[in-house]
C-alpha cells in the first residue's frame, strides 16, 4: 500500500511540474486570479507601479510569472522601436540554421568573402561567425549606425579575432548580413516564420520593419525592429522555456544554452568599456545577449537580458520563472538611462517574495 501511495505522489508531482512548465498564453495572455498568492503582494505591486510612473519614462511594462501576467503597466499593445534588443532577436533566428548545418559558426570572413569600403586586414579576415555574434571579431571598423563602443576600440590589427570584446555595431550589422547570405532568407521574413506564427504574436506589423544606416560608412545596414511590449514578453517566455512553445521546439534547446553561455565576463567587458561599471549591474556577454553576473541574490542566478537604448528590455530570470519586458517609445520624446533600466531589473526581483 505504501508503495502505491509513493508512486501516486511521484506521478502527481511529475504531472504538476509538467503542467506548470506548459503554461503559455494562447491568443491572449492569462492572468492569475490573485497574484498575491504567488508571491507578488498587492502593496508591493502598487508601490512598484508608482515607482515606474514617478521615476521612469517607461511607456509599457509586463511581468510574467509561470507563464501568466502578474503585473502590467502602460500601453502594452503599441509597436515601437526596440533598439539593440534586435540583436538578441537575430541571435535566436540563427539556431535553426546552426542546428541543420546551413550556418557554420567556424566559417571565416575570408571564406564568406566579406569586404567593406575599407578592405579587411589579413588578421581580420580570420574572424569567424562565432567571433562576430559574440562581439569578439577584432574588426574595429565603423558600423553604418551609431550607439556602440567603437570609440574605445584599440588600433586595427592589434587584436587577434576571438581575443578581444568590443560592443560594435559593425559586428552586429554584419551578423545580419551573414545570416541572410548563408540562409538566403530575409531577417524579417524569418521573424514571421520562426517567431510570430509560433508564438501567436498579437501586434507584429511587417510594414514597420526597416533596415537603415549610412551605407557610405559601411555596406551593412542595421536591421531595426518594432515590437509591442506584450510580444516582447512572448519572446522572453520562449527563451525562459528553453526555446519551446506549447508542444513545439521553436528554437533548438541547445542553441538557447549556447546564446546564454558566457563568451565575455563582466570583468573583461568593464575593462574594455569602463563605462559599464556605472550601470548598476555587472554584465557579461553571450551570443548577443547580456548576462547578469556577480550578484549575491540567488534570484538572479543565470539571468540574462536583451537591452536597447532609450529603455528597451527583455530580462529572463530562470531561477524564479519570471520574464520582465518593458519599453520606452522614443517618438513620445521619452527615454530611460541604462541605470534606470538596471534599477527596474533589480526592483522586479525584490518585488517577488514567495512565502
From TrEMBL:
One example GO MF annotation: hydrolase activity
A Pfam family of this chain: Beta-lactamase
Key words of the record: Hydrolase, Signal
Residues spanning the signal sequence: 1-21
Domain (Beta-lactamase-related): residue spans on this chain: 61-333
Record-linked PANTHER family: BETA-LACTAMASE-RELATED, BETA-LACTAMASE-RELATED DOMAIN-CONTAINING PROTEIN
UniProt-recorded name of the protein: Class C beta-lactamase-related serine hydrolase
Amino acid at each position: 500500500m505504501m508503495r502505491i501511495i509513493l508512486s501516486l505522489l511521484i506521478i502527481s508531482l511529475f504531472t504538476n511540474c509538467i503542467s506548470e512548465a506548459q503554461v503559455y498564453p494562447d491568443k491572449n495572455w492569462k492572468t492569475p486570479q490573485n497574484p498575491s498568492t504567488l508571491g507578488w503582494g498587492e502593496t508591493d505591486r502598487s508601490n512598484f507601479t508608482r515607482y515606474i510612473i514617478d521615476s521612469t519614462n517607461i511607456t509599457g511594462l509586463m511581468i510574467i510569472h509561470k507563464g501568466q501576467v502578474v503585473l502590467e503597466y502602460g500601453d502594452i499593445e503599441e509597436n515601437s522601436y526596440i533598439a539593440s534588443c534586435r540583436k538578441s532577436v537575430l541571435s535566436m533566428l540563427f539556431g535553426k540554421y546552426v542546428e541543420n548545418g546551413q550556418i557554420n559558426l567556424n566559417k571565416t570572413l575570408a571564406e564568406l568573402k566579406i569586404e567593406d569600403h575599407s578592405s579587411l586586414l589579413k588578421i581580420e579576415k580570420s574572424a569567424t561567425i562565432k567571433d562576430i555574434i559574440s562581439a569578439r571579431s577584432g574588426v574595429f571598423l565603423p558600423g553604418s549606425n551609431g550607439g556602440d563602443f567603437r570609440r574605445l576600440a584599440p588600433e586595427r590589427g592589434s587584436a587577434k579575432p576571438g581575443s578581444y570584446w568590443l560592443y560594435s555595431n559593425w559586428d552586429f550589422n554584419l551578423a545580419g548580413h551573414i545570416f541572410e547570405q548563408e540562409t538566403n532568407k530575409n531577417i524579417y521574413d524569418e521573424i514571421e516564420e520562426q517567431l510570430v506564427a509560433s508564438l501567436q504574436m498579437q501586434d507584429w506589423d511587417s510594414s514597420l520593419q526597416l533596415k537603415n544606416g549610412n551605407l557610405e560608412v559601411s555596406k551593412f545596414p542595421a536591421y531595426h525592429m518594432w515590437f509591442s511590449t506584450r510580444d516582447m514578453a512572448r519572446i522572453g517566455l520562449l527563451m525562459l522555456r528553453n526555446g519551446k512553445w506549447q508542444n513545439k521546439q521553436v528554437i533548438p534547446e541547445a542553441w538557447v544554452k549556447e546564446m546564454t553561455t558566457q563568451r565575455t565576463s563582466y570583468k573583461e567587458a568593464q575593462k574594455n568599456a569602463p563605462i559599464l561599471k556605472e550601470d548598476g549591474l555587472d554584465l557579461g556577454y553571450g551570443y548577443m545577449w547580456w548576462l547578469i553576473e556577480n550578484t549575491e541574490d540567488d534570484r538572479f542566478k543565470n539571468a540574462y537580458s536583451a537591452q536597447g537604448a532609450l529603455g528597451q528590455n527583455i530580462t529572463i530570470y530562470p531561477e524564479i520563472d519570471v520574464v520582465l519586458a518593458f519599453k520606452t517609445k522614443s517618438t513620445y520624446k521619452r527615454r530611460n538611462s541604462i541605470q534606470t533600466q538596471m534599477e527596474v531589473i533589480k526592483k522586479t526581483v525584490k518585488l517577488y517574495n514567495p512565502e
